[in-house]
């Protein structure tokens, strides 16, 4: 017997989708009803998201889903997005300008914050690794620049919470997204108001924090009318897309996960935050899980670099599919060039080919030029960074990790999956692809009582979707490549500026 229908709105940095799922008590069935491109727009030195267009895509998806499901209709909707970005509301609940994108950050305000609160102090308070676009640094910039929007703001809502507010009129924060902000205290389990006051940031704009699957809210009557729906509820799921994705990973004991997309988020689950010196020095983060635990992970620059390549190639009249890019990479000799995918020089948008080439030039490597050379350089560098992160995790945890499970859109890249298995010398299990939507929908089903526990949620995900296995190969060759990679990393650390 088919259960209720649930709509997952999954927003990525380059694409978004609306997927309907129904759970029959054992397996989840998915049906895509809406897909669209996503992008940020540069204006006046900043990057912006069009929050109202994103909301419009939600309304389109709800309308399409309602028509597709007919009399069965929809029971609820859940939203997940990338982390750290947000919107500001005035005293009337109106959005104060378009939402800024974290990719506009260049590190200037990280340095300014660190004069008042050292990186060690920030980590001790929040458990979050330093990334230029962390919400804390974005808010500090606006206060420092006396931005009228931050002065007038009465509420700050992280992006999925903002979109939910447009649907319901409710102003709340969801736990997994709040943990990405670098303003949440994982031991106090609340906003770190002491830290906010120390940095002279407004603390009155932060609302209460909700846990996933604990409650739901009816959509506003005008929204129901707009979408030709009789009744529909919003469920706070794991609104950070990685939290939703990892919820659906069929993890076993001593296995790590990698949510592969624009970012590669590689880590393990723990019950409590790990705030040791070793974790800080490794630049790991403690982010929330759907069941209230912690994802101890590193945010690695994932497909972002190749995504930027593809935009440049398209502007030059060479529009390529992902399969075409991988195909050209597969024909290039192994270990020709490496880059440090974590280097901040690759964080911002634009001129990515030039940045990669300059890094290789300054580290005395062959300079990649062709599509295959550039993409192979990134894919092999990613696999080597996975190995470095994997080894660091094992040292922190004090035990051997037996496998890596890769989920998300990046797990379609069979070449990178095999590279990861070879580099790690461990099996790699790939799938499901739409893992964020799977976790999103199953959390909605849990809130509705169709799933009784987090363990059952994972069993449902495992029973519903196939997983592909990649066994390690050419391990001696990849060990040699890893030594070359480490030498390049040492050379790169001596170089300060790889771009003009």
UniProtKB/TrEMBL annotation:
Q: Which residues form the signal peptide?
A: none
Outline the extent of the Carbohydrate kinase FGGY N-terminal domain: 6-245
Q: Is Hydrolase among the key words of this record?
A: no
Q: Which GO terms describe its cellular component?
A: cytosol
Q: Name one GO biological process term.
A: glycerol metabolic process
KW ATP-binding (keyword) present: yes
Write out the entry's keywords from A to Z. ATP-binding, Disulfide bond, Kinase, Nucleotide-binding, Rhamnose metabolism, Transferase
Q: Which InterPro entries match?
A: ATPase_NBD, FGGY_C, FGGY_N, Rhamnulokinase
Q: Which CDD domains does the entry link to? A: ASKHA_NBD_FGGY_RhaB-like
Instruction: Give any GO molecular function from the UniProt entry.
Output: ATP binding
Family statement: Belongs to the FGGY kinase family.
**Record's PANTHER family?**
L-RHAMNULOKINASE, SUGAR KINASE
According to UniProt, the name of this protein is Rhamnulokinase
């Amino acid at each position: 017997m088919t259960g209720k229908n649930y709509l997952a709105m999954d927003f990525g940095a380059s694409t978004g989708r609306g997927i309907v799922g129904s759970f029959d008590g054992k397996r989840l069935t998915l049906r895509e009803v809406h897909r669209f491109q996503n992008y940020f727009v540069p204006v006046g030195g900043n990057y912006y998201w069009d929050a109202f267009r994103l909301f419009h895509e939600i309304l389109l998806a709800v309308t399409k889903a309602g028509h597709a499901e007919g009399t069965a209709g929809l029971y609820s909707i859940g939203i997940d997005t990338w982390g750290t970005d947000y919107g500001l509301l005035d005293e009337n609940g109106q959005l104060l300008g378009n939402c800024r994108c974290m990719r506009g950050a260049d590190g200037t305000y990280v340095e300014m914050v660190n004069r008042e609160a050292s990186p060690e102090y920030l980590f001790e308070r929040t458990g979050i690794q330093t990334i230029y676009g962390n919400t804390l640094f974005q808010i500090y910039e606006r206060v420092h620049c006396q931005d009228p929007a931050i002065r007038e703001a009465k509420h700050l809502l992280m992006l999925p919470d903002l979109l939910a507010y447009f649907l319901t009129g409710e102003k709340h924060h969801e736990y997994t997204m709040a943990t990405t902000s670098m303003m949440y205290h994982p031991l106090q389990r609340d906003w770190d108001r002491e830290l906010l006051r120390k940095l002279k940031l407004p603390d009155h704009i932060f609302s209460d924090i909700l846990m996933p699957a604990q409650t739901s809210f009816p959509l506003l009557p005008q929204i129901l009318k707009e979408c030709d729906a009789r009744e529909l509820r919003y469920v706070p799921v794991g609104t950070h897309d990685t939290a939703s994705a990892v919820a659906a990973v069929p993890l076993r004991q001593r296995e790590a996960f990698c949510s592969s997309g624009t970012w590669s988020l590689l880590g393990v689950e723990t019950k409590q935050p790990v705030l040791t010196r070793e974790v800080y020095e490794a630049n790991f983060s403690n982010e929330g899980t759907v069941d209230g635990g912690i994802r101890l992970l590193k945010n690695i620059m994932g497909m972002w670099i190749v995504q930027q390549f593809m935009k440049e190639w398209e502007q030059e009249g060479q529009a390529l599919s992902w399969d075409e890019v991988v195909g050209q990479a597969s024909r290039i000799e192994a270990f020709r060039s490496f880059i440090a995918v974590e280097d901040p020089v690759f964080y911002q948008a634009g001129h990515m080919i030039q940045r990669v080439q300059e890094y290789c030039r300054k580290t005395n490597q062959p300079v990649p030029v062709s599509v295959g050379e550039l993409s192979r350089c990134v894919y092999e560098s990613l696999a080597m960074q996975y190995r470095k992160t994997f080894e660091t995790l094992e040292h922190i945890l004090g035990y051997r990790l037996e496998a890596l499970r890769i989920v998300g859109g990046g797990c379609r890249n069979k070449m990178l999956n095999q590279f990861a298995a070879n580099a790690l010398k461990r099996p790699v299990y790939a799938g499901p692809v739409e893992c964020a939507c799977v976790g999103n929908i199953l959390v909605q089903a849990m809130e509705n009582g169709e799933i009784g526990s987090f363990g059952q949620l994972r069993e449902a995900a495992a029973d519903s979707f196939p997983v592909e296995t990649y066994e390690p190969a050419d391990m001696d060759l990849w060990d040699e490549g890893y030594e070359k990679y480490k030498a390049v990393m040492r050379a790169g650390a001596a170089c300060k500026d790889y771009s003009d």
